[in-house]
Amino acid sequence: MKNIVMLGAPGAGKGTQSALIAKEYGIPHISTGDILRRNIKEGTELGKLAKSYIDAGALVPDEVVIGIVADRLSEADAKNGYVLDGFPRTIAQAEALDKVAKIDVAINIVVGFDVIVNRLSGRRVCVCGATYHTSTLGGRTTCSVCGKELFIRDDDKPETVKARLETYEKQTAPLIGYYANAGILVDVDATGTIEQDFEKIKKVLND
Ligand code: AP5
Question: What predicted TM-score, i.e. pTM, was given to this entire model?
Answer without folding.
Answer: 0.95
